[in-house]
Design brief:
Length: 349
């Protein structure tokens, strides 16, 4: 009787010890995850302000605290890419993808880096891999990648299929229009974008920004600026009628950004910066506000300042040729690269 009682007590002690050990492991894992994410966020901030070496150290600490932190690997890859440690950057991006197979940002970063290295086949294959997982986002990346490496007809075919399969997806139409623009088919590009604004989303900021590129190619920027001034005025009236309407406030901001960028592309830098700066103050992560302010700083040859804004813009606006071009200029201290889009135009096959 006593031995059975002793055995029962021992078992209970062991069970309790096991439970406590498991609880401790779970707690430590949770603490490690929180610490890793805090370090990752700190590293993102350091990278955003241009402190690349310090950012890399924080990313390494974040990964040490949680080796499954995909966002930390993404940030590490971005920092390594800035330092031209390209193979290490690709390994980081691939690790982020392994951890999160549908991680769009990791695919975009890896594909863009491969394109810059002239590895068109590898870039297209990785983009196609993403298209299998995420047909819309991956299909867009695949089409844009094909276009960037000189496979124009393949790219146009990809976007024709995407528009047919996903007729309500605004990003598909916008990226299709930009592919038409790159192929110098400006009329087709404008028609696609006007269809978006008339039939799918009359407040689409990406569509309006894409129209600026089309109007510039058509030498119609002066008319566009007047059109955008009118749209800003209408948006101001709507906001003044109901200042508590969050959508009205956002629409006004988007129209102001559209006007600011059209002024920028027309060379009216002072007014463009004047419009974009308060928006950037309220929305420091805004890709277009960072782009406008960074581009204006670049025009004043303030390359270090411009670089910080344009890096943030590039992260928020992936695969935007004009953003990539000005970012490259800032990195090179104003020297124009041979490939003005910052992409290696080597055809496939």
């Amino acid at each position: 009787m006593n031995s059975r009682l002793m055995f029962s007590r021992t078992t209970r002690v062991r069970l309790l010890a096991g439970i406590l050990a498991c609880t401790l492991l779970v707690t430590l894992a949770g603490c490690g995850g929180r610490q890793s994410e805090q370090r990752r966020q700190r590293a993102d901030t350091l990278l955003r302000i241009g402190q690349v070496s310090q950012a890399l150290e924080e990313y390494e600490r974040a990964i040490a605290a949680n080796p499954d932190n995909a966002a930390a690997f993404l940030g590490q890859g971005r920092a390594q890419s800035i330092r031209n440690d390209h193979e290490e950057a690709l390994a980081s991006f691939r690790r982020a993808i392994e951890l999160t197979p549908d991680y769009e940002e990791a695919y975009v970063e890896a594909v863009q880096l491969m394109v810059r290295q002239g590895r068109g086949h590898d870039a297209a294959e990785l983009a196609a891999q993403f298209a299998e997982i995420a047909p819309v986002e991956g299909g867009i990346l695949h089409g844009r990648t094909l276009m960037s490496v000189g496979a124009r007809e393949q790219a146009l075919s990809v976007f024709a299929e995407l528009r047919s399969e996903f007729p309500e997806e605004v990003p598909v139409h916008i990226n299709s229009a930009m592919t038409y623009l790159q192929a110098n088919r400006t009329t087709d590009a404008e028609e696609v974008l006007q269809h978006v604004l008339a039939e799918l989303d009359d407040r689409s900021l990406p569509a309006r920004m894409a129209l600026i590129d089309v109007y510039r190619a058509q030498d119609k920027l002066p008319e566009a600026i007047e059109e955008f001034r009118t749209l800003v005025s209408h948006a101001e009236d709507a906001y003044d009628a109901d200042p508590d309407d969050r959508q009205a406030r956002e629409h006004l901001m988007n129209m102001e950004l559209t006007l600011a960028r059209s002024l920028l592309e027309a060379g009216q830098y002072e007014e463009a910066e004047e419009i974009a700066t308060p928006i950037l103050h309220d929305h420091p992560e805004s890709g277009w506000a960072n782009y406008v302010v960074g581009a204006c700083l670049l025009e004043r040859e303030e390359y270090g300042e411009a670089l910080q804004y344009l890096q943030t813009a590039a992260r928020g606006l992936p695969q935007q040729p004009q953003v990539d071009r000005r970012l490259t200029l800032a990195r090179r201290g104003g020297l124009e690269p041979v490939d003005i889009c910052g992409l290696a135009k080597q055809p496939l096959g």
